[in-house]
Batch of 4 targets.
Target 1
Amino acid sequence: MSPPACSLIYLVVFLFLSVFSFTNTHAHHCTERFLSEAKQRNLIITFCKRYVERNGVEIAMYLHEKSRRLDIMVGARLEEKTGWLAWGLNPDPEARMVGTQALIGIKYMNGNLLWDRYNITSFTKIGCQLLPSAIDLNISNFNFSYIACLQYYVIQATIVLPMKYDVEKLNHVWQVGIDVAERKEPKMHPRGLRNYDSTETINLRTGKRLASRVHSFRRIREVHGILNIIGWGMLLPIGVIIARNFREFPLPCLGWQRYHISCQAVGYIVGSTGWAVGIWLGRASKHYSFPKHGTFGIFIFTFATLQMLFFKCKPSDRDEFRTYRNMSHHVVGYSLIVASYINIRKGINIMHLDVKYWLPAYFGIAGCVAFIFLVFEIVSWFKFLCDKFGLWIICGKDIPNEEANSRKASREDGKVQPSDTPINN
């Protein structure tokens, strides 16, 4: 393997480890204010977490083991004029929405707060009305209120758990939505991973989270995102910058083609690996899908593969198809860069990754690449205008020899020949 390719691989590994190292967990301890409010309401805390990346909901619980009585307090901000907050338990083997026995509080535009019990079925998933119904939980002290000091809307209730609910492996589900209708009817929540992932299995005796597919998928999604950001979003654009600016002007480099091909090849390998992980995630996620994001991903992979084939199917200098091949190569390359940045942004929006880390990292990488590209473009266009309109005196140089400047340095090995350099009169 050539030294440029080795250097690029080491760079990718370093960036992968550094980016992955600051991804944080998605469940944290409750905030001090929420915990203090729970204690003021005589809620002895066994389990208390704040789910930053999953709707920002905070949940506190206490289990009375002998009586199997569970006290819960669930809080979240409902910042729109209308909204709803839901929490429930699912006795099925898997923590998911369908099958959940839910408590839902609704906020209306006029300020009224209503709350009731709901049985979430498969009909709810396909868009049928969700109306209050009987559930198999014995509920008492159920209310929905607003706490001004927290700016939280809070569900509080006491539940006596039937024996079919395993306290050492309890599936609880929560959700936040915006749209509501009359007759205590919450409408569909937003379709994002922060909503689809709002489930967890916990051991109420220890307060610890148990391993789940959702947690495993989240880590795999992060790997998918990191690989695509590095491959499609960083290395491919850098390869374009090398080919455009290191061939002749402003920084001629004898080995520009080797660096260009190495950068593109490593970017293609890393990006394709991330794409393959994304395909696997799409097939493994049986309860939801993101077709637009997937379509963009297939487009990027397909045309990136086509770009790699251009390196092998390269006509000779005298071949009449070389001009069309070069035009296609350039158009597809620039289209890939635009599509990659759009799809990476879509992926971050879908995953609702931590804005404190992921968005700055993504915009930092994109901004640096765009800044370098812009600087080189300004210099190149400055030279082009000087050549086009004969402004070399204004530009601070002598008038170049027109015959020498009309000969363009184009060699397959990327070398700039001495005979191709301008000769001053």
Target 2
Amino acid sequence: MQLPGTSGTPSAATHRPFGSTEGVPRRVVLLGSTGSIGTQAIDVADAAPDRFTIVALAAGGSNLELLAQQAVHTRAAAVGCALADKDTLHKAVQDAARDAGVSDYDPELFTGPSAATAIAAWPEAEVVLNGITGSIGLEPTLAALAAGHLLALANKESLIVGGELVKKAAAPGQLVPVDSEHSALAQALRSGTPEEVDRLVVTASGGPFRGMKRAELQNVTPGQALAHPTWKMGRMVTTNSASMVNKALEVIEAHLLFDIPLERIDVVVHPQSVVHSMVQFVDGSTIAQASPPDMRLPIALGMGWPHRVPGAAKPCDWTRAAEWTFEPLDEEAFPAVALAKRTAAAGGTGMAVYNAANEEAVDAFHDGLIGFTDIVDTIAAVLAEHTDTAPLTLESVLAAEKWARTAARKRCGR
């Protein structure tokens, strides 16, 4: 899949090339605006008003007060909320406007389950940053692509469960990764041609349980799973990082984004989280992207691709001594990556089942119904029961997810 700034011409359906002229602020839509990615994206836009302007935003609604404050702060023309009705959202926005001393702000409002999808297709947008967590981001992803917007994708699940469905919907140059690992790969891949790429190396911090054996993981607690040593993320992503499910999903995402076979994508544990991923070329050269762990850099690059945003994040301080270490992944203790590779290789709706079963198992773990190692065991068990061979469509993906959630809940004792 080609990225903006590489060779190739976008589909005529988009009516314009991706990557607007430098110096003209890009009109950005934020999906999942109250989450970790969304809040940092607003920081990026605030710091670079000559590069970005927020024209619309949407969130689930678990933090309605923050959503309303963001709307007033950015003066977004459209605001979406999945959980609130229009009267509730309108009141929240007007209350936030009053508290900020703003009297002339009245955005268009979208509410209900389809709010993010409607916002993703906002006609005034140039870039849609999808920072929603989970496979509920699939329909907004497809809507943004159909509208012809550049899609800065932090919602890896929509690509993973949608697979070829998403790839076929994306014109060349329309899809840009925001995950730090895939942003690193996209940058490193600019060092050579596709034919010169030998393999991709995706780095993992190792999470809070790095070095532990499977037997030691059986009794770890939710609190321990959420104590990530490097990144501050939401409950689902942080738990996925601890189980290596997040890294498994990232491997599949890399496979889909860059058209590299699964057997040529490796995972290496790098606890310092400074080298975000690497590309090994056929001549033996390896190009690594390094920067201190700060998501504002890949967010800024995703929204501004292929242009870099000066001062987006602090660089490494090369005047100070530092040590970087790399370790192989213990696949016996952390089998999630190998399981995902087998599932993706089988094709169909398997990765939709993988992701849905994981989300249910993570919730069950935090509710005290299952142990930590039971998370990946549940995914494997549900996949073993999965026999659907339907062609990959939006309907088949949603049906597979529904079935997998039911199966996982039953197995977890719900």
Target 3
Amino acid sequence: MSSYQKELEKYRDIDEDEILRTLSPEELEQLDCELQEMDPEAGLRQRDQTKKSPTGPLDRDALLQYLEQQALEVKERDDLVPFTGEKKGKPFIEPKREIPAEEQITLEPELEEALSHATDAEMCDIAAILGMYTLMSNKQYYDAICSGEICNTEGISSVVQPDKYKPVPDEPPNPTNIEEMLKRVRSNDKELEEVNLNNIQDIPIPVLSDLCEAMKTNTYVRSFSLVATKSGDPIANAVADMLRENRSLQSLNIESNFISSTGLMAVLKAVRENATLTELRVDNQRQWPGDAVEMEMATVLEQCPSIVRFGYHFTQQGPRARAAHAMTRNNELRRQQKKR
């Protein structure tokens, strides 16, 4: 280390702010002058304007009115080249292209006359017969080749127009009464085999937790669906606790919710302790669960032969291949059991 560097080392831990706080106004002014001498442009960029005495109390409305008046009184700058409206140059005219002799097509007089009087719909059918399907929409093409007469009168001019389809009405809201459903689950109603709360997004968390608690002892419900109910990890943990005790549920659907990887892992671990579940759907959560959860999914499918339907789109090739192999094996085992 050079002597100059050693000299700088003693200034490494100096607190500049503390030094500035101890300087007097005269010393600060002197420091400002020194800085301007070191960098003359710094004085222009950071010019001190705090020493002016106030002209009066601040009146914001009067200040804005003054600035607006000043802007209106400023004379507009004249253009360097005045605009006169004169158009310069020549307009572009596309040159006519002469068709080479080898590209010119001569038709028989009868065919030429027939084509000159053909309508757009007839031209569309002719194009379909000749295999020129790029000149028409798919609907026009199939209408032309599947019918002996012209059944699409839109013509070639409709190629750039989309086909009109009947609007599909939105699904009606879920009419399930939550409180009534909870009572039926608690009373173990033998006529209740499906609990469908899909798309009901204002269900309180305590109500869903109570429903999962009631499902622990229910022996008749076969399908339990909570799609798009804004359920998070607390509900996932409640579902996991329910799976450890319930012995009649066959289908569980918790897709399109806000369950994280922690909640999904809890559900998957509980599935290992349930031997009656045959269908599990957990796809389309708010965030991707991660590689560890996908590997756990594949492991669960390998260790739970009762599951024959699984709803999740794998992003990694390894767990996807393992899950596909496990599902094939599980379905084959189920088929053999039915044959017996």
Target 4
Amino acid sequence: MPKTQLQRARAGEVTPAIERVAERENRDVEFVREQVAQGQAVVPNNHAHESLDPMVIGREFATKVNANIGNSDETSDLRGELQKLHTSVHYGADTVMDLSTGSNLDAIREANVAHSPVPIGTVPIYEAVKRVDDPADITHELLLDVVEKQAEQGVDYMTIHAGVRMEHLPLTDGRKTGIVSRGGSILAQWMEENGMENPLYAKFEELCEIFAEHDVTVSLGDGLRPGCLADAGDDAQYAELETLGELTRTAWDRGVQVMVEGPGHVPMDEVAANVERQQAVCDGAPFYVLGPLVTDVAPGYDHITSAIGATEAARAGAAMLCYVTPKEHLGLPDETDVRDGLAAYRIAAHSADVANGLPGARDWDDALSEARYAFDWRRQFDLALDPERAREFHDQTLPGDNYKEARFCSMCGVEFCSMRIDQDARDADGEMSAIDDETDLDASPAAEVNRPPVGTHDTERVPDEIEIDGVTFTPESHADD
């Protein structure tokens, strides 16, 4: 049976995936291997995911961003989901989670895996619910069957809410918003109606056998995460975290790669403490956080409220940020929401990497600042996190090509442009010397995600088209734009 990245790294082997990760991170390959061997980093890499360009998640590496996509009974089809996948990759998602709860789940999952150069994650409990008339009818065997099938399809990591125990449920009684995790609420209902322990906890060792066989990274879900500021840091959240620490060690003992999911709503002053507590309880396993949202009052803008918390979480050591879109709490995101959510979270991740002094992380900022000062508009657009958006906003008021050479924009105009005034003063005979800096991004030690363009992946193994149920799909691919 093929070994997992964790098992091979422990044996001293540098796998092809670890070699690729070291190249993308600009880090020594032996350092990457050691981090994986120690469980401090994961390389989600299902043996069956042929189109994957491997990446790493760990606090010692560039902060990663996950994009959630997926259909529901109300909206989105297979073609729409593939388009959301490619939009996610284009705008910088390092992983993508398929959270589909509607119809055609197998076809959507297979298409996502086949077309994705980034790791694909799922939450198997959602499919289990779709297979029964009542969630209470879910059996242990059904859960194992769903997990095994998804592993065989090539899913790279799965969220498993195994940390929600029967003994934890009474701890949620005083909350304002109860249990807000979909998986957590489903399992709580199952335990209440069946009077039995969480089946994912009861069968966790058997699940680990499946994960190890296919090298699926387990993402230990925070089923009791707080859904509002008032519930943050309560006994329910921390009781589950202790169980997640136990499960982390169980999975490691069986050669399974592990990351741990974190809270959704946390006041700003408690974010860093949450990260530090998880790192201590879970022995340094990578922390994957949703947000966290630092205020509850901004529906429609929760990509902003959460990106603020995400920046602080990453600065404190969170390894991957799960994006939140403007539609959070309001509806299923579309392509525009995916784009806006990813922009907010790429900013959060990069800002934290700069603050944490990751090698070369600020070189990108310096290069763009130099282009801005030189009024090199085309290079400024090319270096932007979202080049299309930057160019679009500039051209709304100054669309002509002649304005790409202009020493001003419509914000200040010719007369009041501070950079033009500064340059003219430096060019004149006086005390100030000219500024002539140039950052060489090609020589930067920064990881790929801290250099433009975002969405840079090796797509050589991604098929140009795929046939599903007799229909050929050739979705627009943004990955190489």
